[in-house]
Design goal:
This protein is 36% helix and 22% strand. By secondary structure, it is an alpha+beta fold. The protein has a four-stranded mixed beta sheet with strand order 1-4-7-8. Strands 3-9-2-10 form a four-stranded antiparallel beta sheet. The protein has a two-stranded antiparallel ribbon with strand order 5-6.
Length: 223
């Protein structure tokens, strides 16, 4: 199991933080029709319930935005992924189709309103991750975004450097079709343990249905 640590800056900005982890053996694929039926169904539900303004009031999104502001980052300029994903739908845009593991991550994020980091465990350096705060000039290549300014963003670091923020994960540890060992980090900045664990269990069930997995192991971590 991966060990999680929390910096004093994160503890001060979000003492109620609750992070659930899911580690699993998986098999990825390019596309799954049944999964995308679920994704489209969830998208239709969200379209009937939210607007771009009311979306910000969902507990997981509001709490993530609040932590960004506490650390000195503008959440409207560097939108957390849990907000940006649904915002695309509300703007009439289609969701990106990446691979089954990434797509089911997005489905859970849409449903629970949490930012979920997804990583290939074989690309993580070491057995520990620390959630800290990005530094000015710290190099970070966001997936599909190029160099990303992560100063004042919450960032998970392995033995080499940053691998994940709520805005974008790093290219170095991204999930690919070759991924067989998976780590999900569910960031419950709202401190709702029941919902954070519910999201983790949902991900485990999705892995069982769509990724040839037994669902793996779940853990819960607090500062």
């Amino acid at each position: 199991m991966i060990a999680l640590h929390f910096s004093p800056e994160i503890q001060a900005a979000c003492p109620q933080l609750c992070v659930a982890t899911v580690e699993a053996q998986v098999r990825n694929s390019e596309h799954d029709d049944l999964l995308w039926q679920e994704i489209h169904g969830e998208g239709q539900r969200l379209l009937t319930e939210y607007t771009p303004d009311s979306l910000k009031q969902r507990a997981g999104i509001e709490a993530t935005r609040r932590v960004y502001r506490a650390l000195g980052k503008d959440p409207s300029r560097y939108r957390p992924s849990n907000e940006a994903l649904v915002r695309r739908l509300l703007q009439g845009k289609s969701l990106y189709e990446i691979s089954t593991l990434v797509d089911l991550n997005n489905l859970a994020s849409m449903h629970w309103a949490y930012s979920i980091g997804g990583f290939d465990m074989d690309k993580i350096q070491g057995t520990e991750l620390t959630l800290g705060v990005g530094r000015e000039g710290e190099p970070y290549e966001g997936i599909g975004r190029g160099l990303l300014n992560i100063a004042d963003l919450p960032v998970y670091r392995d033995a080499v450097g940053g691998i994940g923020t709520p805005t974008s994960d790093h290219e170095r540890t991204k999930i690919g079709l070759e991924t067989t060992r998976l780590l999900f980090l569910i960031n419950g900045y709202d401190g709702n343990q029941a919902a954070t664990e519910g999201c983790a269990r949902h991900l485990q069930e999705l892995l069982r249905r769509y990724a040839h997995s037994d669902g793996g192991h779940m853990g819960l971590h607090r500062p």
